[in-house]
Amino acid sequence: MGNLISVYKVQFLMALKQLKEYKIDFYMGLVTNIIVSLSYVLFYLVFDNLSGGILDWEYYDFILFFFMSFFTSLLLRFFWVRSMVILLNNGNLNMVLSKPVNTFFFVIIKDLRGSIIFFTFFLGLITILLSITNTSYSNYILAYSIALIGFLIQAIFLNVIFSMAFLTKGLVKYLFSIYYHNLNTAVETYTPKFFEETNLKYLAYMFPVSFIDYFFIEILKGNTTEVLLYLPYFLLFGIICLMILILQWHYGLKKYEAFG
After folding, report:
1. Whole-model pTM above 0.85?
2. What's the rounded Cα separation, in Å, for the pair 100 and 92?
3. 107 CB-near residues (< 8 Å, 6+ apart)
4. Contact yes or no for 235/149 (Cβ under 8 A)
């Protein structure tokens, strides 16, 4: 554990130094994030008018909803092993295995960039300020607890997808794209409430992003019945994903060390 903390500290310091050495990366990230933010602020301005009969939300709720989703999407970079396919393809996993720290956690931290640290911290601060300055909100502890559970299970599930690289490297990017860029984005952008009249209703509510940002807003607004209905099944889903992830790494590393 001591080695892991030391490595994380060094990697964070090295990543933060990139803010000075690679300023173009920071400025490009700043421009991109501003454009994305403005686009969604305008989108939810229109969406607010269209969803009046479906969601009992105000425009302020949508803005907090967006910043919560934006913040947690960046925060995922601190917790996923997306580089596994590249490490396995080019054989560089051998170098990671030689490090005196847990392989899984080192893969997570090795590619972290300074700009990601800065923007994640900045968006997190905005999210917290937006939530605590609205006097109509309540249930803060429950809201943030549910969001944290959703975030952790989202990270675990994504790592299950990335860790399939131990078995099939070519399939990982397609599964990630289908889940994260398509299904996850659709549920996150429109909220699971818009799927209530479809066969995907229960599946949409079980998506991790539903707990991260949709239920986060609902709880702050005093609506807790729905989240407590789905929570036991969601926790069971998370436990199953965690067990699969542990097995993937146990047998995946054993196979790689034998033939890699």
Report:
1. yes
2. 16
3. 81, 83, 84, 87, 96
4. yes
